[in-house]
Amino acid sequence: MDFDEILAKCGNSHRYQYMLLAFYGFLMLVVSMHYFSQNVISFVPDHWCYHEQLRNRSITEIEAIYKQFDKPSCTRLVTLGDDSNGTNAIASVERCDRWIYNYEFGFRSMNTELNWVCDAAYKARVGQSLFFVGSMCGTLMFGLLGDRIGRVKAVILANWCGFLGDFSTIFTGSLTAFSVTRFVSGLAADANSYLMYILLIEYVSPSLRNVGLNMVMGIFYSLGLIGAAWLAVLVGNWRLFLACSSLPLLLVTLVYFLVQESAQWLVTRNDIDGAVDRLRRVAKINRRVVSDEDFKAFRSYCHCHYRITATTAAEQPESKLLDMLKTPRMRSSAFKVLLIFIIVVPCYNTIARNVEGLGISPFILFSLNALMLPPAGYVQGYLQDVAGRKATAVSWMILTGILATAAGLVISLGQNRNVYLLVGLTLLTRFGVSIADGVSSQLCTELIPTCVRGRGVAVAHVVGFAASFLSPYILHLGTYYKPAPTIIIGLLFLSGAYVCLLLPETRNKKLPMSLAEGEEFGKGEGMFDFLHQLRKQGSAEKKLEAELKTKEVQESK
């Protein structure tokens, strides 16, 4: 009796799994607020250089006066001139050291309080870069810990780092201190969620994994984003915002008392007794009765299949991540997984974080972007269940690439562009990239064997974050040719779709636990075999439907 069979007897779509989903939902809520807090505290509203003659002027008048200059936000005035409307204003060559801000909903961000705008705008970007450096280090570090000390403990430690970094940022006022605290905060980014994601995949049924997991992720991640934007508006200050958004990270400590360690992981660590104990607790929570004979059969399977004996369990060599590179098929799959993350993660970060300069308040656009996540999660889960991971990933990468390119063409129109059309295309692109990112991440996670899944996913995310450093340079190309960034994103998505075609399908298949199972997984499967499977599935469904109709006709007679 293998793991999937014993888990089905203990319950893989019951009370314990729903409790896991509920906790994962809470985690997504606080994690999304933590991840995008960097954006919220760095919002830069419209601003203009301060001048005494502008003291009693309205924002509209100030904007009209500065509109005549090439760099209205950073131009210092000598005088407004003789004209009361300021049309004869004279610019100074000196740098501006004081600004007038048009605060969005009254929120005072870190950039406005510390005047990190114009020539000092790079300081916030340095801190943001250190946040991503921390993400790379933390993802790798906690991924290694997740495979060594367990998923649960690693999740708790990651969220403690997130709290420490965010709460410490409140007391910073210099670039050095800000960079250090953002690095510490970044250690938690991604690691504080994907380890719980792995734990869920290892405990829930494929059907619940398809729809339930993606719906919970979409709904609660969306609530976290909306909550982050409007919590900032409510408190009105970036320091208070960080205090309020960081404290819930400490509540993740409750996972230690509520969630069972991964039984699959314990099997790969040769701790069969520990795995059986966790499965017994799962069965008890689910109110399922599992006989001792079933657990005995499971033990026998583990001892036989993984070659574990009571005397040599402690001497069994631990599977290493580099062992994936020793066999041809696992090596090929590993490089394809890394390539997908290199393509998708930078595209996701570029699209998700681009909420300024589109002709609409960043708080409103932030909320509208968040509202795309629940339907995206549902559509992703439904399509994965009906068409599979591979077909969903390929189709939505292609579609998102087309939408991103279309948005770029609208941006190229400049001031003649239609704001509503641009916002609509931006939201559709956000919808598409959420599906593409979610399904490709799940496909890659399921392909990596359990024994190295934590480390494997960690390395993939680190490589993705490293590639995200190209995002600012991709955006910078827009200064030379405005549609360039979105055209590049479109081409990247098309490349990602091709790479996904080279991977095997994982829908309704037993996921690999050992490296040997990973090497055999999907063997003999062609690039387009998933299309034949869809056709067979459609033919089988039509046949079943015809049989049911025939039976109904016969019964009516």
Automatic annotation (TrEMBL):
Top-rank taxon, per record: Eukaryota
Localisation per UniProt entry: Membrane
Q: Which Pfam families match?
A: Sugar_tr (PF00083)
Q: Does the keyword DNA damage apply?
A: no
Where exactly are the transmembrane stretches of this chain? 18-36, 126-145, 157-177, 183-204, 211-232, 238-259, 334-352, 358-379, 391-413, 419-436, 457-475, 487-504
- List the residue ranges forming a coiled coil, or say none: none
Boundaries of every Major facilitator superfamily (MFS) profile domain copy? 18-507
Q: Which InterPro entries match?
A: MFS_dom, MFS_sugar_transport-like, MFS_trans_sf
Quote the Gene3D superfamilies the UniProt record gives.
MFS general substrate transporter like domains (1.20.1250.20)
Predominant place of localization: membrane
Query: Any idea which UniProt keywords this protein has?
Result: Membrane, Transmembrane, Transmembrane helix
Keyword flag Methyltransferase: no
Under the heading PROSITE patterns, the entry gives: MFS
Give membrane topology per the record.
Multi-pass membrane protein
What is this protein called in UniProt?
A: Organic cation transporter 1-like
Query: Source species, please?
Result: Drosophila arizonae
Query: Gene symbol?
Result: LOC108621446
